[in-house]
Design goal:
DUF6332; membrane; two-stranded antiparallel ribbon; transmembrane helix; single chain; mainly alpha
């Protein structure tokens, strides 16, 4: 947990975003694993009349590949989120949080939040 030192507490919105991202990672990893099982095991079993031994080998290979695909997808989604979140938190902490407002294709250097809670920005 040394990576969280000095970052302060997470807001409810950040905790919700993490929860949603974990749910998305689990669901998408499950879909990938089911697709691998379908391609490696179900496809050949349906398309060809295979012996029982061959079906068993396909099941073991398909299960192993599905497990690997599940964990690779899960780690990839969570790694990307973590990297994106650290970058965002670093920019906000240094006061570099920029809103998505543009003028003539150029991003304006306007802070994304007012400097004091409960107050509006002068240009709002």
């Amino acid at each position: 947990m040394s990576g969280t030192t000095g970052q302060g507490r997470r807001s409810q919105a950040e905790r919700d975003a993490i929860t949603v991202e974990i749910g998305y990672a689990l669901v998408s990893a499950t879909v990938v694993a089911v697709a691998v099982i379908g391609v490696v095991v179900a496809g050949p079993v349906i398309a060809f009349s295979l012996s029982e031994g061959t079906e068993r080998v396909l099941l073991v290979v398909g299960g192993t590949l599905a497990a690997v695909a599940f964990f690779v997808r899960l780690a990839t989604v969570l790694w990307r989120f973590s990297t994106r979140e650290q970058t965002r938190r670093g920019q906000t902490r240094r006061g570099q949080g920029i809103s998505g407002r543009t003028r003539g294709g150029q991003t304006l250097g306007v802070p994304s939040q007012p400097s004091q809670p409960g107050r509006t920005s002068p240009d709002s």
